[in-house]
Specification:
The chain is α+β, with helices and mostly antiparallel strands and about 475 residues long. About 55% of the residues are buried.
Length: about 475
């Protein structure tokens, strides 16, 4: 990639998304009824649909299996353009290996070996307050690590609370998935427990009761905290569930305090808004929020899984409305989230001056719209467990219509833009089509793979329901009902 890791730093709390779409925010004139419960299951798919999902899931798994360093277990941020490692991508990878076992892509022993390699590496990685010869501090890890040394990639990289959380999603999955009475699986459980217990969550509460987004030795704590509805839900659940360094229960109340600013109607659907779809997907890949509700959910008769479904439908409606007149948008081509893009380029077009971006948190919701015509398949794919009846046609249409440019050895490339026809900074521009990326990102491959499997079998959700720390964190946050009370 031509842009630096600092420029592409993925700190995913978007306080205010710049309005790039022509005409500004678009809302439906009146509220519409919520979509009916989705009855599309894996079991009732047509043969061609099953073949497509089988192929996409296997290819996406292969990305993790083949990109990870076999000696450290580190997963690259992006690949095949081999880069620094993203610890969040490692978390998705650790979860992917269990999926690979259940699907028959690899043996259980292969998954055990790769998982042990990864956990041993993190357990032995240096933790200190220095600038360079370190992988983390206070149990947290740096967002990006050098693929060869496993140390902090460069001085602009932060010690990240959310990326450590996503890493721990995979660590805790491993702890609960590898449950056999063998020396190697016992070691997995011991190392996973050690890594989670080491995180000093209260240390990251510089403005208590909220949790800071991160810390750097030079700049100290990042001046922003996790608050309001987005992917940070899992940060608080893990911080509340810690048996060694928990935060107080008022942290969840503080997290929810800004919800009124995000609650409202977009495209006729009323829900907790967050423009990029990853904010509705990352925590949900590991936690099954269906039927369990916190105090806010009980007051609004809504769980977070249903909220994600409404956000997915609203994004599809936005693409159908297509106020920016972007090429290709419609009922089966949609999906805005944080993703790669063609570059920071300005073009003249029949619609006027167009501004395009490289990596950016694109999204559409309430008063925040950031849209330069770039579609990320993970935006739809990561919502398949919420809304399969609209996600499956979208994924199949994108492959059928643009597959020669956007579907490759490892499934969908990260993003594409049929409206861009200039000289791109990254990826390729194809005559008659537009721009397509030439790589995949681990944090975008992960939701596709994990949510396909959750939709097919519920595997990741079922495993995580067995983890006592997840259960305890949810209960301390005030969640009740559903599976929390049945098990």
């Amino acid at each position: 990639m031509s842009s630096s890791p600092w420029c592409r730093l993925r700190v995913f709390a978007v306080a205010a998304l710049a309005v790039l779409v022509a005409g500004g925010p678009v809302r439906a004139a009146a509220s519409i009824a919520p979509p009916q419960p989705d009855s599309l299951t894996w079991q009732n798919l047509a043969p061609d649909q099953r073949a497509f999902i089988d192929d996409l899931e296997h290819r996406t798994f292969d990305w993790f299996w083949q990109s990870a360093d076999p000696y450290t277990g580190l997963v690259p941020d992006s690949w095949p353009n081999h880069t620094f490692s993203s610890i969040a991508a490692v978390g998705f990878g650790l979860t992917a290996y269990g999926i690979g076992v259940e699907r028959g892509y690899i043996t259980r022993e292969q998954a055990v070996q790769r998982t042990l390699t990864t956990l041993r590496f993190f357990a032995n990685a240096p933790q200190n307050g220095g600038e360079d010869d370190t992988a983390g501090y206070h149990g947290f890890f740096y967002h990006f690590l050098d693929m060869q040394t496993g140390r902090r990639y460069e001085r602009g990289v932060e010690l990240s609370s959310v990326d450590t959380t996503l890493l721990m999603g995979g660590v805790l999955f491993a702890e609960s998935y590898y449950d056999r009475d063998t020396p190697r699986e016992k070691e997995i459980r011991q190392l996973a427990d050690q890594l989670y217990r080491a995180i000093d969550w209260p240390w990251m509460q510089v403005r208590k009761p909220l949790i800071s987004m991160g810390w750097t030795p030079g700049g100290q704590f990042i001046p922003s905290d996790w608050e309001g509805y987005d992917e940070g839900k899992l940060v608080y659940i893990l911080a509340l569930g810690s048996p060694t360094h928990p935060v107080d229960a008022d942290a969840w109340t503080a997290w929810c305090a800004t919800y009124p600013k995000q609650w409202g109607a977009f495209q006729g659907y009323t829900f907790l808004n967050f423009g990029p779809l990853f904010g509705h997907q990352y925590s949900e890949t590991w936690v099954d929020f269906r039927g369990i509700r916190d105090a806010w959910g009980r007051a609004h008769n809504l769980d977070y899984a249903e909220n994600g479904r409404l956000a997915t439908y609203a994004q599809r409606s936005y693409a159908i409305a297509n106020p920016g007149h972007w090429t290709g948008y419609g009922a089966d081509v949609w999906g805005l989230t944080a993703s790669d893009g063609p570059g920071d380029v300005t073009e003249n077009s029949p619609q006027g001056v167009r501004r395009f971006s490289s990596y950016m948190a694109r999204g559409a919701g309430l008063d925040d719209i950031t849209d330069d015509g770039t579609i990320a398949p993970t935006a739809a794919g990561g919502s398949i467990a919420f809304a399969p009846s609209i996600v499956l046609p979208a994924l199949m249409t994108m492959k059928q219509r643009y597959g020669q440019y956007i579907y490759s050895r490892y499934g969908f490339v990260d993003a594409f833009n049929p409206s861009f026809h200039g000289t791109s900074e990254d990826g390729h521009t194809y005559p008659g089509f537009g721009w397509a990326d030439n790589q995949q990102l681990g944090i975008d491959q992960g939701p596709i793979l994990l949510m396909i499997e959750n939709w097919r079998s519920g595997l990741v959700w079922s495993v995580m329901k067995k983890n006592p720390y997840i259960r305890h964190g949810l209960q301390r946050a005030g969640f009740t009902g559903g599976w929390l009370e049945r098990h």
